[in-house]
Amino acid sequence: MRYARGIGRIGALAVVLGLGVAITIPAIGCSAPGDSGSATGDPWAKPLSPSAEAFPLGSLPQIDPNELLQALLDALAAIRNGIVPIVFNRTPVATPQQVSVPQGGTTGPVAFTAFDPDGNRMTFRVRQRGVPGGPQHGVVQVDQQTASFTYTPDPTFVGSDTFTVAVSDDTSLHVHGLAGYLGPFHGHDDVATVTVFVGATPTTTISGDFSMLTYNIAGLPFPLSSAILPRFLYTKQIGQRLNNYYVANVQEDFAYHDFLVKRSQMPSQTPPEPPTLLWPIGVPFSDGLNTLAQFKVKRLDRQTWWQCSADNCLTVKGFTYSQLQMPGGETIDLYNLHTNTGGGRFTNDNLAQITNYIQQNSAGRAVIVTGDFNARYSDDLSALQTFASDLTLTDAWVQLEFGGMTPTNAIPCMVGNKCELLDKIFYRSGQGVTLNAVAYSNEAPKFFNSKGQPLSDHSPPMVGFHYDVDNVGL
In the chain, which residues fall in CATH 2.60.40.10? Predict the structure, then answer.
């Protein structure tokens, strides 16, 4: 009888634990063997169900404890294997691809080189022709069923064309938000570039163009922000309009990051700090610096300024260091900064700190530095020229609007290419990467609301770059 009661407890425990294993043991009287019980209603002798009469003690099936234990272990393993991919989902992996096609031809179905560590079905997204991240000289058709694509170039085009593919495993039940909060660049997607060589095109070098925008989006929480309200609405509009650029560095992305990325089609994004799980907590724990890009963003290092002044110390201002993976496999070091306001000593200390960091971490490499510098060339004690010369950087605005001659008396304003902004874009070429700024634009008019009001209290400058990169992916 003790054995029967023990088996019953194990069966009950299995049900309580939700193992999905139903173990039913017939009720057994607890009277001693040979005692037929009492006809007067002895509760220990009365069977609890008719099934007890149908199965005398001698005919009960024998249960092997080892078999029962193995069944329980198998059930636990099944639960574990079902829960882990849901709670601890792993990101799919996409790798860059290169294909060749004759002029006027087509690639035929080409399988995407991507896999999912959890075995989830993947989906593939390529933006339409002519927009950032999409093909520029042909048409791409994606077949989700076969996980492949077909590229058809323009009939007369000869050269290299590049597009970005975003790979997602967001097709099955999993807590992708958890990985998005805690891991880099979301938890359920990856990004890679596909380069197509059309006709008699050299494959040792890849050329192309991309746009770089920097924008202080005035994301301080209400009522601290000096931009128009409501900030969550206009931040969402900013995020949607950033889709028109290849790469965007944003500053003051403190309190409304979820709204910034709500309508974003930028497949590679740096995770905010602190995670959006803690929204709306941003100040004073966030540096407000993030990058959104059509290219894959690799690495991320956040650095805080050693020196700050007054209300600048209420946030952990600083700079970020990451890398843009270009077609062909080379990378560009990308910096995003937000210095102390007011110029002068503390702003110059910030520039000296990032100068030292770039010298230590980006020696000989291609570099782009953007952000809210809180300084102008006309400012007293301005260290902008020293910053540029120490790092062999070129200010794209100075190069394209003033022929390389630094203006010392440019007027500040919100709209116009000739006026000087606090927000700047510097660059240089480096090993395996040649960069050349070919266009500059103050994009402020493209970030007005329906009433003609600016969506932020800053104007965003944009630089169009032409690149030639070594093809290290051969």
Answer: 93-198
